[in-house]
Amino acid sequence: MKLDSKIPSGPLAEKWNKHKFDLKLVNPANKRKFEVLVVGTGLAGASAAASLAELGYQVSCFCYQDSPRRAHSIAAQGGINAAKNYKNDGDSIHRLFYDTIKGGDFRAREANVHRLAEVSLSIIDHCVAQGVPFAREYGGMLDNRSFGGAQVSRTFYARGQTGQQLLLGAYQALSRQVGLGAVKMFPRTEMLELVVVAGHAKGIVVRDMVTGKISSHAGDAVVLATGGYSNVFYLSTNAVGCNVTAAYRAYKKGAAFANPCYTQIHPTCIPVSGDHQSKLTLMSESLRNDGRVWVPKQKGDKRLPHDIAEKDRDYFLERKYPSFGNLAPRDISSRAAKEACDEGRGVGPGGLGVYLDFSDAIKRLGEAKIRERYANLFDMYERITGENAYRMPMRIYPAVHYTMGGLWVDYNLMSTVPGLFVLGEANFSDHGANRLGASALMQGLADGYFVLPYTIGHYFAHDKPARPQAGSAEFREAEAAARTRVQKLLAIQGKRTTRSFHRELGRLVWDKCGMARSEKGLKEALQRIPALRDEFWSNLAITGSGESLNQALEHAGRVADFLEFAELMCLDALTRDESCGGHFRTEHQTEEGEAKRDDEHFSHVAAWEFQGEDGRPLLHKEPLVYEGVHMSQRSYK
Amino acid sequence: MKLTLKVWRQKDGDSRGEFATYQANDINPDMSFLEMLDEVNESLLARGEEPIAFDSDCREGICGACSMVINGLPHGGRKATTACQLHMRLFEDGETVTVEPWRARAFPVVRDLIVDRSGFDRIIQAGGFVSVSTGGAQDANVIPIPKPDAELAMDAAQCIGCGACVAACKNASAMLFVAAKVSHLAILPQGRVEKNRRVLRMVEAMDSEGFGNCTVTGSCEAVCPKEISLNFITRLNQEYAVALLKSTGQSAR
Ligand SMILES: Cc1cc2nc3c(=O)[nH]c(=O)nc-3n(C[C@H](O)[C@H](O)[C@H](O)COP(=O)(O)OP(=O)(O)OC[C@H]3O[C@@H](n4cnc5c(N)ncnc54)[C@H](O)[C@@H]3O)c2cc1C
Ligand code: FES
C-alpha cells in the first residue's frame, strides 16, 4: 500500500482553485450512466447524495434509521463555523484555517484544512438559500456566537439545534431528489460488507433490518458517510446506534484506518448517574460563552454552591488560560476538569463533576436573555437531572464525543481502495488530534456539498474504472461472509448479553485509552481486549432469528466490530509515543501538565493496513508538512 | 422502584398483537423510560425471551425516533418531552404502566412498539423543500430577515417528525406535521417563491397516505415534544386556500 495524498502543487491558498480546474469532468449526459452508493444520511451523506443527484448521477442512499432525517447529525447543538467575518472582528479564511490547524495540535493535513476554510463561506450561503432558519439580529442580519479555540465570533447557529436545522436542510434536498426519482432511498438498511472487485470498490452488502434479508448493491463508486466510532466507549454523547461497522469492514477490505487513537472528550456533558445509563448527554460548548467553570478551592468542600464565597472558588480555566478563559479548547478544558476532580475538588455524586455557573451572566444580561440563548439546553438539563440551572449551577463532566480518526483519504476524499470515498466524521482528514467546536458540521457539509461533487467525477473520467457486475464471484463471497457472521452470532447461545460486553469494553477503553493514556495501561488493554472478544464469541446470548427485525442481533454485530476495532485504537495510542491534542500520554507532558508533542518523530498521519485476522496491522506514515503555518507549542494562556 | 408493565407485543405487521405483562424491579429514578425498557430487555434476554423492540437513537429528544404511547399518551404526556427524555422519577413506585405503539392507519406496526412512519418522508418528498441546487447561492446576508420572522420560522422548523401528533389525534391527522413544514418555509423569503406549489403537493400527499382530517381538537399540540403551536395549522389552512385560488385562477387563464 502506498499513501499518495495527491495534494496539489502551488501556493496553499490557490491549491483548491487550481485543482478544481485540473480535475477531469464527466459530461452532463454521461453522468446518469454512473451509479453511486452513498451510505449514511447525516450531514455528509445527505448533502453528498443530494448534490450528486442534482448533477445527474444515479444515487442509492442507505441509513440504519427509519428515516434519513434521524441521522446522528440531528443532535448537534451549538453551531457551524464559517469565515464570513460579518462581525468585522478580524476573521478571515486564513484565520479559520490557522485556528483549525492549531486547534488540531498540528496533526491535520494543511491543504485539506485550508480548503475547508475556503468553502465554509459557500456552506452558509447555501444553507440560507435552503431555508435554514439561522439566528438573526434585529437588523435582519445573521447572528454569530463564539466557540472554543477562537477569539472571533464566527459560529452560525439556530438556537441550540443547529445540527437539526442543517440536517433538515440536507434531508429536504435529498427528499427532493428522491421525489424526482434521482435517488433511491433505503432506510432501515445496514451495510455489512464492502465489495471490492479488481481492487476497486464496486458495491456493498446490506441487511434489511425489517425482513433480515441480506442482499447486495452494485455501483460505480461507494461513498461512506457513516459517522464516528465514539460508541466503542459504550458511553458517549453519540446516538446509541452509531457504530464503526461500515468503516471497519472497509478497513478489512483494504482501506487504511488513520489515527484511530484521536478521540475527543468533550468537557461539558451531564455527569454519569449510574450503571443503567445508555448514553451521555452533551451540554453545548456554546454555554461556555456565558457560563463560568469552577470548583471549590478546598478539597471535599460539601457546601452548596451558593454557600461557597467567591474567594473560596477556583475558576480554574480563567486562572490557567486567562486569554481564552472558559473558551479554552476541548481537550485542554477536559483535562483541566479531570485534574480538578482527581485532586478531590470535584462536585456532585462521586466527586466527578465541576460547576458551570450562569449566575454572573444572568445578573449581567437578565434571565430572559439567557433563556433566549439556551432555553432548550437548560430544559434538557432539568429533564435529565431534575435541577433548575437558572437557580443552581449546572454540574458537568467530560465525556467521549467525537472521533477525529477515521478512514484515510487523499485530497480527493478517496480512501486507499480506489472508488471508495469517505466523508464527514468517518474520515480522518481535517481535525488533526483535536477538533474545534462547530467545525464538524462545517466539514460534513463541505465534503458533501462542495468537495465530493468535484472529485468523484475525476475518478470516473480519469481512472475509467470497469463497470460493476452484480452477481459476480466477489459479490457472492461478500454476501456469504455476511450471512455466515449472522449465523455465527445466533449460534453461540451463551449466557451474557451484548450490552454487558459492550459496557465492559467501554469501561476498559475509557480507563486505558480515554482522557489519559500510558504505555502500561495500553499494554494491559491490548491483553484484555482479545480475551473479552473470545468470551463474546463463546458466551453471547441473543434470541430470535436472522430473518426478522432483531435489535439484539443488530447490536451484537456492531459490538463484534467494536471489539476488534478497540484493539486497533489502543495499538495506535501505544505506537504514538507522544502527546498531542486529545491524545494525552501521561509520559509526555510539559511541566504545567499540557500535552507535549514530539514533532521530530510523530509529525505524521498513522495509517494502518489490515493484515489478515491473525496478522498485526501494518503502519504507514504520511508525513505532515506545513507551508502556511509555523508549528508551535499550543498556548491558550 | 418497582413497576408492572403492560407492553404491546406483535411479531410483525401481519401478526395479531397482544399485551404482555412484565415486572420491572430495581428501577433507579434517574433512569430514562427507555433505559428502564433496556433493563427489562436485559432480563428478557437472560430468560431466553425476545426483547421488546422499540425505536430510539439520539436519546436526547431530537431525532424523533422514539415513539411509544405510555399510559395512553404519546411520549407519556409530560410537557415538551419525548419518551427518551422521560425520567422514572415521574412515576409512582408500584404503578402499572401500559406501553403501546403509535396507533394510526398511516403508521402500520412493524414489530412491538415500532411503526412505519415513511409516510412522513413521502410528504416531504412531495414538496417540503426549497428547490435550490448546490452552488450559486448569493451571499447569506443579501436578504435581511426580520428577527421575529426568523424566530417564528424556527418555532415551526423545530418539528422532529416523531409522529406523536398523529398518534394523539382521534382522526390520525398529520396536519400539525405538515403545517410545521409549510409554515417554516412560507415564512422565510427563500421559501416563499414556491409556497403555493409546495402546500398543494404536501396536502395532496398527506391525503393519499391515509392520514385523517383535522377537526382542531388540539390534542396534537398538547403532546408535541417541541410544542409546535396549533396556530401553524391556521396558517396552513390560509396558505392552502390562497394556493388553491391561485391554481384555479391560473388554469382558468
Ligand atoms: C450531541 C452532539 C452535539 C454536537 N454538536 C456539534 C456542533 O454544535 N457543531 C459541530 O460542528 N459538530 C457537533 N457535533 C459533531 C457532529 O454532529 C458530527 O460529527 C457530525 O454530525 C457527523 O456527521 P456525519 O454526516 O459524518 O455522520 P452522522 O450524522 O453520524 O451520520 C451517519 C449516517 O450513517 C448511517 N450509518 C452508520 N452506520 C451505518 C451502517 N453500517 N449501515 C448503514 N448506514 C449506516 C447512519 O444511519 C447515519 O445516516 C456534535 C455531536 C454530538 C454527539
Ligand atoms: S431517541 Fe431521539 S428523540 Fe427519543
* Radius of gyration based on Cα positions of chain B: 21 Å
- Beta fraction of the residues of chain A? 15-25%
Q: By CATH's scheme, which homologous superfamily of the largest domain in chain B applies?
A: Alpha-helical ferredoxin
Largest sheet of chain B: 5 strands, mixed
- By CATH, the architecture of the largest domain in chain A is named 3-Layer(bba) Sandwich
Named CATH architecture of the largest domain in chain B: Orthogonal Bundle
Tally of discrete structural domains of chain A: 3
* Percent helix range of chain A: 25-40%
Mean pLDDT of chain A: 95
Q: What name does CATH use for the topology of the largest domain in chain B?
A: Fumarate Reductase Iron-sulfur Protein, Chain B, domain 2
Report on this model:
The complex is a heterodimer of chains A (637) and B (253). Chain A is α/β, with parallel strands linked by helices and 637 residues long. Chain A has 3 domains: 34-261 and 402-463, FAD/NAD(P)-binding domain (3-Layer(bba) Sandwich); 265-398, Flavocytochrome C3, Chain A, domain 1, CATH 3.90.700.10; 476-623, Fumarate reductase/succinate dehydrogenase flavoprotein-like, C-terminal domain (Methane Monooxygenase Hydroxylase, Chain G, domain 1, Up-down Bundle). Helices cover 37% and strands 15% of the residues of chain A. In chain A, strands 5-2-1-9-17 form a 5-stranded parallel sheet. The longest helix of chain A has 25 residues, at 551-575. The two termini of chain A are 42 Å apart. Chain B is of the alpha+beta class and 253 residues long. Chain B has 2 domains: 3-40 and 50-111, Roll (Ubiquitin-like (UB roll)), CATH 3.10.20; 118-252, Orthogonal Bundle (Fumarate Reductase Iron-sulfur Protein, Chain B, domain 2). Chain B is 39% helix and 11% strand. A 5-stranded mixed sheet of chain B has the order 2-1-5-3-4. A two-stranded antiparallel sheet of chain B has the order 6-7. In chain B, a hairpin with a 2-residue loop joins strand 6 (109-111) and strand 7. The longest helix of chain B has 22 residues, at 231-252. At the A-B interface, helix 3, helix 5, helix 6, helix 11 and helix 12 of A face helix 1, helix 2 and helix 3 of B. The complex binds flavin-adenine dinucleotide and FE2/S2 (inorganic) cluster. The site of FE2/S2 (inorganic) cluster has 12 residues of chain B, from loops.
